[in-house]
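Known limitations

Files may contain more than one protein. Parsers should not assume a single record per file. Below, a two-record file is shown to illustrate correct handling: read the sequence, read the token line, then continue until end of file.
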Amino acid sequence: MSANYIFSDKTKKITFAMMGIGVLAIVYALVRGIPAQRIWANFLVDIFFFLSIGLGATFYMAKKYAAEASYAIVYKRVYEAISGYLPVGAILLIIFLALGFFHVHHIYHWMDPEVYNPESEHYDHIIANKAPYFNSFFFWGRILVLFGLFYLAQRTLRKRSLEEDLTGDIGLHKKNITTSAWFLVIFGFFSPVIVWDVLMSVDTHWFSTMFGWYVIAGFWCTTMITIMLFSLHLKDKGHLAEMNDSHFHDLGKWTFALSFLWTYTFFCQFMLIWYANIPEEVTYFQDRISTMGYRPLFWAMFFINFSLPMIILMSRDAKRNATFLKIVGGILIFTHWLDVYVMVMPGTVGENWRVFSPLELGLFIGFAGLFLFVVLGQLAKAPIMVQKHPLLDESKHHQI
């Protein structure tokens, strides 16, 4: 069954309206005189958040090929479609970074050439010592190469998957296993580098060896929640007839388990820095829980992301209850977005923030509209149920 009616003219109008709300949020911010730094910081939050879901879906797709896991085949088109946002998000991020290099915005202090000049009043010896890493050629080389490889893997896996539906050639499946293998190696080694460059470098004086894995655990969890919510929606619309309670139970288990993985990486990073109490390390958390008014957001984000899945998704029945999954998933999507927000805002806006405004909410809705437009468009390009995957029959009869 095609997903064309899901991406109907009415659905397109809804996504366009959501994107329009994002534009109005920017207009509101300009009229109200909200500082440009805060506007740009919100752009970074939303660009990275939705890009991370597209990248996470590509990772999940590759992992399923490499492991030859059969249970996820019946909703394979869902995470394939979500991975289709990767090139869109990557382009937006590259444009954002390029605007920083041309000094249109000042989100990244290390992009200012004056911080490397000993004769300048803006000279910063800490950032200057990191000049080899932030060298323009090296920075753009790794950004473009890594996202180029990520996109190549995503496009190749998706293209062969659609071709497999037409030909039934098992050789395409085996080729995708090989592609997944090299992608997973590159992703495993270098995805933390992307996180360092895009998020951790906002606080240029600070670093943490756990930060990359902490962020990856967060967007992996968010990706699984997104896959779950799309699958539940499609099931409600009469699609994914072969997807049973056991499949949703698996997605609930992924959400439950990855919430604990995220909590573990959060605790490891926070506890070690707090216990050591080294001034150049604790400044990151001081900015978020002591001096700038972000404390309620910081602790709410942590306790909701940790406790909600633990309390609600502990039981077997809850993982098979669509209502529970939708409620928990919807809340966790927002609180993981809040996680990225708390990572970015203190290092960019600092104390020039007190409460949420229509800017934050509207821009999030706008990017969500763009995300839905891309993902639903990808869903409409092929039958929602795969046709000739070698593990399809096993997936249809999946029971736990």
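...continuing to the second record:
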Amino acid sequence: MAFKDLQEYIAALSLRRDLKKITVPVDPVLEITEIADRMVKRGGPALLFENAAGSPFPVAINLFGTLQRLCFALGVEDLDEIAKRVVGLIPQSPPDTFFEKMRFLVKLKEISGFQPRKVSAGPVQELVEKTPNLLRLPVLKCWPKDAGRFITLPLVVTRNPHTGQQNIGMYRIQIVSETKAIMHWHVHHDGAKNFRLHQAQGQDMEVAIVLGGDPATIYAATAPLPPGFDELLFAGFLRGEAVEVVRGTTVDLLLPAHGEFLIEGSVSATETMLEGPFGDHTGFYSGADNYPVITIKTITRKKTPIYPATIVGRPPMEDCYFGKATERIFLPLIRLQLSEVSDINLPCEGVFHNCVIVAIKKEYPGHARKVASALWGMGQMMFVKAIIIVDEDVDVQNLSEVAWKVLSSVDPERDTFMVKGPLDVLDHAAPQSIYGSKIGIDATRKLKEEGHLRPWPEEIKMAPEIKALVDKRWKEYGF
């Protein structure tokens, strides 16, 4: 099932009794965050604050705050269903016969059917605010030492001035005044790259900030897609139906037609302001720094929109489940290059860039080091601070089992190795920003060639026939 927009998804959550409506006045400054934080930590329902103090618009939050809810949002029972669809699109070897080439072309044609579909008008442009005012929105101040109010779930649309290729990313935005805001993006982000290309030409950059849209499009804005891959095409693939887009009223960009709000403006090539601090997804405040200023030209919206938000902070948080979606959906692409990888885990505690646990089918000495090195060379995997490699029989989703295997299988001097390279800008432990050391941990069973001269012990396991017997007689035992 493809949800048309955010409101259809929220209505479906209500029917599933997975939505709590709060009718009493609640303050977007800190109070909504405290309520939402308690709910996500408890695995509680999505929340709809119908009376956000100081704003005429309701606030929806914790919309994707459990694995089950995220699966429902993406129309699947299990995220691995999407991974299987991805596998179905990837040729396992280059097509060499006529019929194999034809099958591949058919698959490509199927993908092209998910290209965004342009329409002349959409709900997100039902009303045009001639005098735009960001301060009317129920934008959250999430944590006590935040520098102000931040839009936390925006779809930020930019365009490469050379290729014309659009990009959608999710970057926090600090509100300054009715028509001014600050764009926070990191140097490695595609939106920041597009901005630098405009800067080099001495040009401000057109930008659109979409609030809302269907769940697949919201997730797609967070996905680590290869350079040049259209997020809206990916969203169409996820939902099994093309995303409808409209041209902006004051910017030459194609934008999701079923958003709740559409904020159009430009990012200054020269003007910056101090942005932050901000309570970040690491669980710590990220510091203040200068980022480019956005000037708002217009705001369009639905007649009765809902303002979508999320909060980040000490994990687990709602963004952990977006991370799990990325883990499952992109595993086939990792295996396309590293066929020995059987599974990966991006644990919530690792906040995406601090830790990856990888199970491999080990075939030769140094195999774990080869895999770690290859992963550090793959896209946003370059930011990962710790890569732990285990054997394929280890359940990497079971952190207790992983801890046992790692602690019992590692000789620190032999099995740990360090490299230096780029780090996520939010890694406050690094001696300097965006660059530092990473650690690889080889927790696989060791071979003689790797310096382990003693026999590797056999793991304790019950005889299969006894396990089967006990399974058969389980109810006889009185359990």
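Parsers that stop after the first record will miss the second one. For reference, the second record is described as follows. The first strand starts at residue 19 and ends at 22.
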